[in-house]
Structure formats: C-alpha cells, structure tokens
C-alpha cells in the first residue's frame, strides 16, 4: 500500500489575511481582525469543521465553506445571535451585522470621523488626542508634555548665576 502524504501548506490566504498553516483552525480564525474566541467556536460548531485540524491540511472545499459562512455574517439575516455581532443596530442601516478585516478598520475610522463632524464630546476628545472614555488625565497620557518640571542641570546652572547677581 502506498501511503499518501498530506502536504501542509505553510501559509494559507483566508479572507484577505495570510495565516500560518501550522495553526489549528480554532486559533487561525482568531488571526483575522474582528473574529473573536466565542465567534470562532460558534462558526466551527455551525459549519461542523473540527477546530483541532490544521488549517494547512484542510481541503479547498472546507476553506470555502468557512469563508462563505464568515461572509454571510456581514449580511442582515445571518444565523448568529445578535449579541455576537460587532455592529449591532448599525447607524446607517439599522441592522445587526458583523464586520471583519480591513472593513472593520474602515468602519471604525468612519465612526470617529462622524463623531468629529457632529462635534460630539467623544469626537472632540479624539481630535485633541485625549482619552475618550473618562480616564483621568492628571498623571496619565502625558507623553512628551513636561509641564512644571525643571531639570537638575538647569537648576545647577541657575544657582551660580544667582549668587553672582547678589554680589
């Protein structure tokens, strides 16, 4: 009997993302922005694919099945519960959809720009680069903003000059 070697693909292109083929499917799905642990488990359960199987050993038909299911999440009438979606009651369409990949980054920037145009409090905080969610600013978020701090070298240089003026 001749044994067939299943060749493991090292890198698999899945939903416009290059993923390591050595990873199990359950971990490799989480490499896609917008797909979390809970959503990965739900996707694998709905499609009936083993999560322990390596992504590089999967057949093209199984990969297409996964891709089609994830793409169906972006439509209004999908099989997942609403609490798993990352865009519930979308401002434009009012539907529960799930965005992933580069579209997720695009939607996030679009939402921030909408807040800026409205001059909402959160939008103004985004414009000035300040914390948006109510964090304190007295001690945090002070990158390269030295206020009221005098360096030792400046103090030492100022002391001899002050003594000469008194004489």
Report the count of strand segments.
Answer: 2
Uncertain regions spanning at least 5 consecutive residues: none
CATH-derived architecture of the largest domain: Orthogonal Bundle
Radius of gyration: 27 Å
Q: Span from first to last CA?
A: 105 Å
In the residues, how many domains can be counted?
2
**CATH fold category name of the largest domain:** Helicase, Ruva Protein, domain 3
Q: Helicity level, as a percent range?
A: 40-55%
Number of helices: 6
The CATH class name of the largest domain reads Mainly Alpha
Largest sheet: 2 strands, antiparallel
Share of residues in strands? under 5%
Overall 3D shape = elongated
Structure, described:
The chain has helices at residues 25-28, 37-47, 60-72, 102-118, 121-128, 152-166, and strands spanning 11-14, 17-20. The chain is mostly helical and 167 residues long. The protein has two domains: 1-85, Helicase, Ruva Protein, domain 3 (Orthogonal Bundle); 101-167, 30s ribosomal protein s13, domain 2, CATH 4.10.910. The chain has a two-stranded antiparallel sheet with strand order 1-2. A hairpin with a 2-residue loop joins strand 1 (11-14) and strand 2 (17-20). Helix 4 packs across helix 5 (121-128). It starts with 10 loop residues before the first strand and ends with a helix. The relative contact order is 0.09. The mean pLDDT is 83.
Keywords:
elongated, 30s ribosomal protein s13, domain 2, Helicase, Ruva Protein, domain 3, 5% strand, two-stranded antiparallel ribbon, mainly alpha, 6 helices, 2 domains, 167 residues, 2 strands
């Amino acid at each position: 009997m001749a044994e067939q070697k299943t060749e493991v693909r090292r890198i698999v292109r899945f939903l416009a993302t290059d993923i390591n083929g050595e990873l199990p499917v359950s971990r490799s799905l989480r490499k896609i922005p917008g797909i979390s642990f809970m959503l990965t488990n739900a996707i694998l359960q709905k499609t009936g694919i083993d999560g322990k199987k390596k992504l590089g050993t999967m057949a093209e038909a199984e990969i297409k099945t996964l891709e089609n299911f994830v793409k169906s999440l972006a439509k209004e009438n999908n099989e997942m519960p609403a609490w798993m979606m990352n865009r519930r009651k979308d401002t434009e369409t009012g539907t529960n959809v799930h965005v992933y990949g580069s579209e997720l980054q695009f939607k996030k920037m679009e939402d921030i720009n909408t807040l800026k145009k409205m001059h909402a409090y959160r939008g103004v905080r985004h414009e000035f680069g300040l914390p948006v969610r109510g964090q304190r600013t007295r001690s945090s978020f002070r990158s390269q903003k030295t206020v009221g701090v005098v360096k030792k070298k400046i103090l030492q240089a100022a002391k001899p000059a002050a003594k000469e003026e008194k004489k």
